[in-house]
Each structure stands twice: as C-alpha cells, then as structure tokens.
Amino acid sequence: PILLAQHYRSHGEIIGLCNQAFYEGQLRVLTDEDYSSWPAGLPVGLQWIDCKGESRKHSAGSRFNNAEIMKVIKVLRDCVAHLDGRSLNIGVVTPFSRQRTLLQSRIADEFDQIVIDQHQLKVQTAHQYQGSERDIMIFSLVVSGRGNGGSDRWFNFYPQILNVALSRAKRLLYIIGDKEYCLSRPGVLGTVSSVYDSIKAVTCVAEQWVAGNLDSEEETILYEKLLQRLANRRDIRVVPKRRVGPYS
Fold this sequence. Notes:
Structural class: alpha/beta
Number of helices: 9
Order of helices and strands: EHEEEEHEHHEEHHEHHH
Largest sheet: 5 strands, parallel
Helix content: 40-55%
Number of strands: 9
Distance between the termini: 37 Å
Radius of gyration: 20 Å
C-alpha cells in the first residue's frame, strides 16, 4: 500500500480525526479553509449528536436504530433550512444496510424530490461511498449500549471502511451515535470518540480566545488605526480576529 500523505478535501477537524485515529498523524492537511461563502448559522467541521437509542438486529439480518433515524431527519431539516437554496450536496452514510433502507424510505417521505435532487441527497453504506465526497455528511453509527445489536465487531474488522465513511465529508460531518457507549469500547470506536473529544477541546479553547476579539491594548490601538486609515476604502474589510480551523 502507498500512503497518499497530502490531503486537500476535508475541513481540518474532520481530516484531523482520521489523521489521528487511522494514520498516526502522517497526513499533511492542505485543505482550503475559506468559508466566507458558507451559510450563516451552519457549523463547520465535526459535530457529534449524542443519541442513546436502541440498536436492533433485524430478523433478515443487519441492524437498525430508530432513534438515530429520527435524529438524522432532524439534522437534515436543519441543514436544508440553513442552505437557503444553495446547491451544496448532502450525504447520509451508515455501516448497516438495514439502517440505509429505513433511512431511504423515511427521507423519501419527509423531503420533496426537488430538495433531494437539488442537494444530491443520497443514503448509502460506507462501502458504497468509497471514491465519493459530500459538502455535508451525516453518519449514523447504529450501535448502542441498549438493544440486542450493540456489537461493534464490524468497526474493528473493517476500520478502513469506517475511515472512508468519516473522510467523505468536505465541510461538515455530523456523527450520530451513543457517545458514552463508544467511549467505553476498547477498539476503534473508543479511539475515534476520544480523538473527537481532544479535537473539540482544542476548538473550544480557540473559540474562547476569539470571542474577546481584541485581547490587548496594543491590538485595540492597531485596530482603531487601521479603521481610520482605511475609512475611505470600500474594498477592504478589517476583521479583528479570524478563525481558521482550531486557530485564531
């Protein structure tokens, strides 16, 4: 195997999760982090939606989680509302074919075909998404600490497929699943969930830093001088601090 070490697709938080969980930090992240045209009110990067549903084994095989299906629909509605006509594409991915089938049926009932076509909305298993990418991806884990289908053997047998599912997202990745259960697992789910927490801890610090905008008397003087000097320039906008991934 050859490692393609330069990565250009995903937001820093998203590929940072994969880099630490699957590549031992070997990837060089070179993604363009310009989100100036991104819809207002819609987050970027990683978002874990905790869902303590029940994972069930279907009589014909595979697994499903009805609580996660409801969460996926809620997240989809919120995304579509914020996109406001923008033709960004959306994907829903899950490891289990039964969950995929149920999600496909529910989405067809909940959303107009025009919306589905406009956002190229597809629901596929992790295997089917190899080679694809989406601006927004929603990942339904299905496994849970409750029910009769909570085993995470699939994830430990095929960690590379989990990596594929996570890294298809370009701008925004929602992970929907039982966070407490995932953190308790000794294999790849435990790794992914603990790496997620470490990444978001860094982001939280950056957000607190940027929230103050101007952090010293010197910065305040510089900002005021720039505003005075550029008062007649309409082509230049002065921004006190700008977020780029986890940095300010």
